[in-house]
Design goal:
Elements: H1 12-15, E1 17-22, E2 31-37, H2 40-43, E3 47-51, H3 52-56, E4 65-75, E5 78-88, H4 90-96, E6 108-111, E7 117-120
Parallel strand pairs: 1-5
Antiparallel strand pairs: 1-2, 3-4, 4-5, 6-7
Length: about 120
Amino acid sequence: MARKRQGKIKDKWREKRWIKVSAPDSFNNVQIAYVPITDEENAIGRVIEITLFDILKGDPSQHQYKLYFQINKVDGESASTIFKRYEYSKEFLRSLVRRGSSKVSFIIDIKTKDAYVSELK
């Protein structure tokens, strides 16, 4: 009985390259992530989640804020982002809400000075 010849297995991780992702100017261009990408087109639009504590480096009172940044431009080994949204962490939000209370949803669109529209929930 003949065996099936197996081809060479391609390692997808070897094809990837690592880029540094930095926050926008309003967050002092702090490096927020180091992510693998295969090509620049797939990296654009990727959303990165980070806490405000990680950006401020040492203020423990900022653990409850989760910030979301979206990659908008890749230049060689670095990528720039735009601020997408922020929210409270689930643990912190649960500590604020009492059992049996009702939920109030408040959604508003905010326009910044540079004409970027962001939705706050």
